[in-house]
């Protein structure tokens, strides 16, 4: 078994290797003056189970670099090539929600399959059905493995779990049942991407310690609007948990200026900016355990909390 990393996920890949007690594989990237790049393995991978760690968040170079690494490993006679994708980008394009648009996540899955990937390990896909876009096994891990224990250790009374939109209701319901708490939902009306026109809260939050659960936070507009609506309805405290801290544009400033007392995220992608309100929990140990289990053909069910 050997673990390698593409450039944008080296921060996480090194932690994974440390948990496995091995050295991170040696690789390099040659860059040309026009922006073209060529990854290269700097050690033999012949006959090895090769794990390549890379989140595929934009820019598209991150996805393409992973594709090139997979292709290079196959051409170097690796036994198996497993893509470890903590954050699977383009996952919001999982269906045709209006005429004449692409299904980007299906295209990304097809590209990975064409490159020669034998297995995919990922976490908190934006839509569960994306697993079916692949023709290879997909190990879908959940951020609840670290978020649920963290919430339990807060020892909050009158705990209420919430989802920032109806699409996250299934995830919020799973947390609610596990934590034996109440649940409220947010209904939002969105007229174009990244812009929420209006939002209403379904359920009672007055005097409650609210925990908002989501798979990712991008512009943070939806999350902050939900927190503001809950503050108006006299919630006692508001915390948010999101696996993937994309945090584009002025997202960090919005979080800092919002009623959210704490935003807890993972290191699936590098945090673009530090903030006193943002706490990062590492998923390296979860991925290390899963990689070890896949390498030894063992069950990975112990990596799931619920």
What would you call the structural class? alpha/beta
- The average pLDDT score comes to 94
Order of helices and strands: EHEEEHEHEEHEHEEEHEHEEH
State which percent range the strand residues make up.
Answer: 25-35%
Strand order of the largest sheet: 10-9-8-11-12-13-14
Low-confidence stretches: none
Number of helices: 8
Sheet bearing the most strands, described?
7 strands, mixed
Query: Could you give the count of β-strands?
Result: 14
Instruction: Work out the helicity level.
Output: 25-40%
| Rg estimate, integer Å | 20 Å
Alpha carbon gap, first and last residue: 29 Å
Shape: globular
Explain this structure.
Helix content is 29%, strand content 28%. The chain is of the alpha/beta class. A 7-stranded mixed beta sheet has the order 10-9-8-11-12-13-14, with helices on both faces. It has a 5-stranded parallel beta sheet with strand order 1-4-5-6-7, with helices on both faces. Strands 2-3 form a two-stranded antiparallel ribbon. Strand 11 (209-217), helix 6 (221-232) and strand 12 (237-245) form a beta-alpha-beta unit. The radius of gyration is 20 Å and the shape is globular.
Q: Which features does this protein show?
A:
306 residues, alpha/beta, five-stranded parallel beta sheet, 8 helices
What is the compact description of this entry?
This protein has 306 residues and is an alpha/beta fold. It has helices spanning 10-20, 61-75, 104-115, 144-154, 169-179, 221-232, 251-256, 284-295, and strands spanning 2-5, 27-31, 37-41, 49-53, 80-85, 119-123, 138-141, 159-163, 182-192, 195-202, 209-217, 237-245, 262-266, 278-281. The strands form three sheets. Strands 10-9-8-11-12-13-14 form a seven-stranded mixed sheet, sandwiched between helices. The protein has a five-stranded parallel sheet with strand order 1-4-5-6-7, sandwiched between helices.
